[in-house]
Amino acid sequence: MQLLERVFKLTEHETTIRTEVIAGVTTFLTMAYIIFVNPSILGAVFISGCLFLAVTLFGLRALIISGIPQSLRSAITVGIGLFLAIIALKSAGIVVKSDATFVTLGDLHTAPVVLASLGFLLIVALDRLKVPGAILLGIVAVTVASFFFGGNKFAGVFDAPPSIAPTFLHLDIKAALAGGFLNVVLVFFLVELFDATGTLMGVAKRAGLLVPGKMERLNRALLADSVAIFAGSLLGTSSTTAYVESAAGVQAGGRTGLTAMTVSVLFLACLFIAPLAGSVPAYATAPALFFVACLMLRELVELDWDESTEVVPAAVTALMMPFTYSIANGLAFGFISYALIKLCTGKAKEVHWMTWLIAGVFLFKFIYVGG
């Protein structure tokens, strides 16, 4: 216990081992779906990962973060909340695809919709009553109910891990450097850079860990993120990144590396118990994500609503994340609109030089590479 206190400074962060473990399990359950996603185009991932690691080691990524306007920082958290909301509603079947109206209301009589709705109400009630592990209890309750009312079937507990031989070190660098694939590398790089950076900032801000002037811990997170992408391409997986579902762990009380360690141990265990993790349906974690999404919208109060040159770019940033299904695209439109609006209103001097640079890079991407 003393070792954990010394390493993770639990008292300093006003948390406990129990809270951190619950937060870790909650985070794991909301992102366990990624276990069943297949890898692809490893050469492009490897090259973009190398670039990503380089910009982190040389401090460029931290410099980029320092140049993000305060209004856009708040917008990132709000945008991630909206992004989580659309993911949750889709996973629950409450919102479905429509050829006529893009999206529409799903069938409210299905078991997933009913169970997800009840799970959401349960989580809100438990959280209001300050019951520890409210989000985790909601996920577990819906999962258990899914076996009785949702047609969910228990797939077992243990399974042998698959061989990584088919993808381990199978990098086609030559093909990735070909003319057409260079565009893919650029897209991967920009998405990795701004998608992960945006997620880290949004989740850290929600946790109260983003302290102005203190970048040391954030730099460590950025480095870990960069190394993971580089190593992931060698091991045979597509780009790794910081997951927006981490916000669920933050809401559950996670504040230290002990939460991350819990998540990593559970993912390691999934090499052998993947069927058990697969028994948690998407609509069981949807209520947790939607609850967290609702709470992340509180960042809207931080915006100066009397200054349209700040509010409009922030709104563009937040709205474009769910509507383009990409955090990076939301940031792209946010930076571009922020720079152009400031320029057109005679406030160009208020714009940080890094903001101009990032806006220019995104403009180049949209013009010469496309979406």
TrEMBL record:
Transmembrane feature ranges: 21-38, 44-64, 76-96, 108-126, 133-155, 175-201, 318-341, 353-370
One Pfam family linked to the record: Xan_ur_permease
The organism's place on the tree of life at top rank: Bacteria
Membrane topology annotation: Multi-pass membrane protein
Protein name: NCS2 family permease
Record InterPro entries: Azg-like, NCS2
Keywords of this entry: Membrane, Transmembrane, Transmembrane helix, Transport
An MF annotation (GO) of this entry: adenine transmembrane transporter activity
Protein's UniProt keywords contain Transmembrane: yes
Organism name: Rhodoferax sediminis
Principal subcellular localisation of the protein: membrane
GO CC terms: endomembrane system; plasma membrane
Localization of this protein: Endomembrane system
Protein family membership: Belongs to the nucleobase:cation symporter-2 (NCS2) (TC 2.A.40) family. Azg-like subfamily.
